[in-house]
């Protein structure tokens, strides 16, 4: 096993141990460590020694959360995928939607339970926590964009 393959499998293991589905983690790592610009589901299946069908659910998950993207491949009938250049900030931005929904759901719960009830107090803490996290995430993303623009963390050349 090459050092590159070992590093990719190690990352997949860490992601799996922290809650990501195993195949999703392996596909994620394969695309992240890929030497080429894109890979097809067949390429991923061959590299991971699994069927292309086994890869499809993982690809769908990674597309949904914005970590990878489908890209055109002139002359090919197959879908090609690549790891997004802005994947990390995209995921944080996408997760803002989840955080916002959690905040809104807590607010609805407070309305239903009443603000002075035990449930209402717990839900108020939940709402306030998610409101705080959302605000901090937006600040972090703004600072990240500014740092990139100033060249502190330049985008690596292809």
Describe the protein in words.
A 3-stranded antiparallel sheet has the order 1-3-2. The chain has helices at 3-17, 22-32, 41-48, 52-64, 87-113, 118-149, and strands spanning 39-40, 68-71, 80-83. The protein folds into 2 domains: 3-83, Winged helix-like DNA-binding domain superfamily/Winged helix DNA-binding domain (Arc Repressor Mutant, subunit A, Orthogonal Bundle), CATH 1.10.10.10; 87-149. A hairpin with an 8-residue loop joins strand 2 (68-71) and strand 3. It has 6 helices and 3 strands. The chain is mostly helical.
How are the elements arranged and paired?
Blueprint: H1 3-17, H2 22-32, E1 39-40, H3 41-48, H4 52-64, E2 68-71, E3 80-83, H5 87-113, H6 118-149
Antiparallel strand pairs: 1-3, 2-3
Low-confidence stretches: none
CATH-defined topology of the largest domain: Arc Repressor Mutant, subunit A
Structural class computed from helices and strand pairing: mainly alpha
Number of distinct beta strands: 3
Tell me the name of the CATH class of the largest domain: Mainly Alpha
Radius of gyration based on Cα positions = 20 Å
Summarize the main sheet. Answer: 3 strands, antiparallel
Number of helices: 6
- What string gives the helices and strands in order? HHEHHEEHH
What is the count of structural domains?
Answer: 2
Strands in their spatial order, largest beta sheet: 1-3-2
